[in-house]
Amino acid sequence: MIKVIENLQIGPMVWKMLVEVPRLVAKAKAGQFVILRVNDKGERIPMSIAGLDKDKGLLTIIYQVVGKTTALMTTVQPGEEISDCVGPLGLPSHVEKWGTACVVGGGIGIAPVYPIAQAYKEAGNKVITIVGARNKGLLFYEDEHKSVADDYYPCTDDGSYGHHGFVSDVLKKLLDDGEKIGMIMAIGPVPMMKVVANLTKDYNVPTWVSLNPLMIDGTGMCGGCRVSIGGETKFACVDGPDFDGHMVDFDLLTSRLGAYKNQERKAMKKLLEDPKCRLTKAVKEFKYPDEKA
């Protein structure tokens, strides 16, 4: 059993969880992930590493309520336990001194690019951080990113904060203005990563993305997390999660991510209707984007 130290809401449908896993944290590196279960009957879900406190043995996970299991995660109180947290899994992000490195985070991807930005900075790079969300209320980790970034650019779709537009707008302007970027790491919604990767092809700038496809065991045995990279099948759990963005088949990834949407909705609906579940008021009001509020 894994002790939860903190579990608090930091934005609309976004929570920050700290779990005590000293042995895991001691070996973990930026870019890797973990798989956790809330209880012994729950599903195993992959979660990106959003922070590592090596001294205290604490792992930070930033998660968004998108279905049954993430909704259940919100019910765990500090001092309580979850069934398990397995890791570190996957390969760490490649880090070297390029001169200037850029991290691009969209939505919940703002969290996992933070430890990667830290690693880039520790390697001696100038770090440019571009983060984006639909509105100001959905942006988080601002202080954390500012503590690492040499240049920090927040973006909002509605113009409520920072650049009015997309992260790709800011990145394009930097490249057009002659910024010499040696490496770009983008993490976020698949459409965002696709746009960023397509953009940087014309500038010949190495661009990597972190993929989070459907996953079960996380050790390469089930094949559920297969992705197409340059026409070759790879497993995100053992060959990734980072891949060359210029080689990812994003259309296939998008198709596979939607394979069990109907089942996910049924499970979520059943949970929301359970009067015994300790869901917060915010979670009980959860709606999918295409549902009427």
Written overview of the protein:
- This protein is an alpha/beta fold and 293 residues long.
- The protein has 3 domains: 2-90, Beta Barrel (Elongation Factor Tu (Ef-tu), domain 3), CATH 2.40.30.10; 93-209, 3-Layer(aba) Sandwich (Rossmann fold); 211-274, no CATH class.
- 27% of the residues lie in helices and 30% in strands.
- The protein is built from 10 helices and 17 strands.
- The chain has helices spanning 22-27, 68-73, 113-122, 142-148, 167-176, 190-201, 236-239, 250-257, 261-272, 281-284; strands at residues 2-11, 14-20, 33-37, 45-48, 51-53, 58-64, 81-82, 84-89, 100-106, 126-133, 151-156, 163-164, 183-187, 207-210, 226-229, 232-235, 242-244.
- α3 links the parallel β9 (100-106) and β10 (126-133).
- α5 (167-176) packs parallel to α6 (190-201).
Q: Which structural traits does this protein have?
A:
293 residues; alpha/beta; Elongation Factor Tu (Ef-tu), domain 3; Rossmann fold; 3 domains; seven-stranded mixed beta sheet; five-stranded antiparallel beta sheet; 10 helices; 17 strands; 27% helix
Architecture blueprint of SSEs:
Layout: E1 2-11, E2 14-20, H1 22-27, E3 33-37, E4 45-48, E5 51-53, E6 58-64, H2 68-73, E7 81-82, E8 84-89, E9 100-106, H3 113-122, E10 126-133, H4 142-148, E11 151-156, E12 163-164, H5 167-176, E13 183-187, H6 190-201, E14 207-210, E15 226-229, E16 232-235, H7 236-239, E17 242-244, H8 250-257, H9 261-272, H10 281-284
Parallel strand pairs: 9-10, 9-13, 10-11, 11-12, 13-14
Antiparallel strand pairs: 1-2, 1-7, 2-6, 3-4, 3-8, 5-6, 14-17, 15-16
